[in-house]
Amino acid sequence: MQKNKLGHHLLSLARYYSRVAPPPPAYADPVIRVSNNVAYLGSPKQGPKPRQLLSLPPFPGHHLPGKNSATGRVTAISWLKYYFDEISDSAIQSHFNKGLVKIESSNPNAADSFIERDGQMKSLRKIKHNEVMEVGARVWVPVSIAETRVSRRFDCIPSGTLHPNADEIDYLRRLVKYKDYAILVLNKPPKLPVKGSLPVHNSMDALAAAALSYDYDEGPKLVHRLDRESSGLLLMGRTKESISHLHWLFNDINPAKSSCKAWNDACDAKFQRYWALVIGTPKENEGLIRSPLSKILLDDGKTERVILAQNVGLEPSQEAVTEYRVLGPMINGCSWVELRPLTSRKHQLRVHCAEALGTPIVGDYKYGWFVHRQWKQMPRVDIEPRTGKPYKLRRPEGLDVQKGSVLSKVPLVHLHCRELVLPNIAKSLPLLSNNAETLSPGLSGKPDLLRFVASMPKHMKISWNLMSSYLV
User: Fold this and answer.
1) If 0-12 CB within 10 Å is exposed, 13-18 middle and 19+ buried, where does residue 335 land?
2) How high is the pLDDT of residue 13?
3) Does one domain contain both 229 and 325?
4) With contact defined as beta carbons under 8 Å apart, do 378 and 407 qualify?
5) pLDDT tens, position by position, 33-66
């Protein structure tokens, strides 16, 4: 009898090791596998890896808040819903239906899998959603149930019910480049809308209002905009006084100047500087673009497009002025260009590059569609063309991280607001409100101008690293 028990125990251990990590058969012959049109000779493909499990804390035994305590019973699905309160009930129920939720069992014969915890092997069995939890019972669920909360993080949700969790707030606050009591400066990532609307809820203004209020009753407000596809420095005001002065500062038609000379001088020094990668190269290395813009509707009656005004007097137009400077020679049909808008018009830089200069921005299919039809991704260069030596590319390996750069067949928009110079609003507000030329000792030592520089997004960094050695 004792021998039978020992044999059964050894058999259960053998079953455990065969389930979790089955060893490859010693007699297996090498097989031919094809990857990226290249044949390889190697061992047979490994089987599926064991599912990663996540352990919940032991069930405490007390009644859950909001539940009816008259029965004195807590089911397994109630315990999971209480622990994963941010995950939908249907997602939790589907894990029970698929038999993915398990509980530690003291009976090895009833177990269908094993797991190691605290150096000991624990047997697990499937649990139904209506089973009653016992004190100290430990439930195991797949990691996918926790990832459901992460995948739903960036879904469209109404701005009025936007409640970011700790990870979201930490991510948004890492975007903040500068913060004082008057303004907030962020480095906006690409593909994130700045202003929300009826179909757009997860916008920069809604996220900032919900997560970047800090110790203020209200969140910061937008004072200027960036396109959804572009990235870079975004300025927001934190008080009514600073928002009012920043709106005046970014208004193209400014009223009469203030009586404060320091404020007027700082306003004259304000500018934005963008970096862009364009297809082709401008005829002149630097210049000034003065091309008014007009808005039209396409044939569908819904899509709006910005074009260069024809100057015939029959259509409304807005003055648009942009300074540009070429940063280096054309490489693989592309050039890096520095843009400085002197007016703030919608899609001004994109239209001026595409139509006025004839060099659309890489990834801007809206205004450079015909040029992108002939787009060819940049080949992998191994030799420095000027020296003939091996070219040391500062780029990560693997195509997965090169998505969106010039190495991709479908690149993202290469337009980035890199530099911003503006008056020190926190220092200027006391002067403007009191109309005095004296400041407190704490403010007098601060600079009149603030300068910010933002790093480029990942896809532009890869393109820059590929081509920066050629820049002069």
Assistant:
1) buried
2) 40
3) no
4) yes
5) 555 555 556 666 665 555 677 778 888 776 666 5
Q: Which segments of 302-363 are extended strands (E)?
A: 304-308, 321-326, 334-341
Q: Which two tokens stand for residue 82?
A: 């209480």
Q: Are residues 140 and 188 in the same domain?
A: no
pLDDT at 34 (0 to 100): 58
Q: Which residue has the tokens 């007699």?
A: 27
Q: Which of 89, 155, 167, 227 is catalytic?
A: 227
Q: Model-level pTM?
A: 0.61
Long-range CB contacts for residues 317-320, cutoff 8 Å, separation at least 24: 317/292, 317/293, 318/292, 318/293, 318/294, 318/343, 318/345, 319/252, 319/290, 319/292, 319/343, 320/289, 320/290, 320/291, 320/292, 320/293, 320/345, 320/348, 320/351, 320/352
C-alpha 65 chain-centroid distance: 36
Q: How far apart are CA 320 and CA 341, in angstroms?
A: 8
Domain end point (choices 105, 125, 152): 152
Domain match, 69 and 181 both: no
Last residue within a domain, chosen from 251, 285, 309? 251
- Could you tell me the residue range of the domain that residue 410 belongs to? 271-415+459-470
Query: Rounded distance, CA 230 to CA 170, Å?
Result: 22
Sign of CA dihedral 344, 348, 353, 358: negative
Report the CATH number at residue 191.
3.30.2350.10
The DSSP annotation for 232-285 comes to: EEEEEE-SHHHHHHHHHHT-SS--SPPS-HHHHHHHHT-EEEEEEEEES--SSS
What is residue 325's three-state secondary structure? strand
**Ranges of H-type helices in 152-215:** 166-174, 204-211
328 and 464, same structural domain?
yes
* Total domain count, the chain: 3
Give the integer Cα–Cα distance in Å for 188 and 230.
8
CATH number at residue 335: 3.30.2350
Cα–Cα distance for residue pair 157/165, rounded to 1 Å: 14
> Do residue 209 and residue 298 come from a single domain?
no
- C-alpha separations of 409 from 261, 310, 335, 373, 402 in Å: 52, 34, 18, 11, 10
Taking 50 as the pLDDT cut, the residues of the chain under it are: 2-3, 6-22, 27, 149-161, 198, 391, 393-401, 435, 470-472
Q: Is 400 a catalytic residue?
A: no
Pull the structure tokens for residue 291.
């091309």
Q: What does the pLDDT read at residue 187?
A: 93
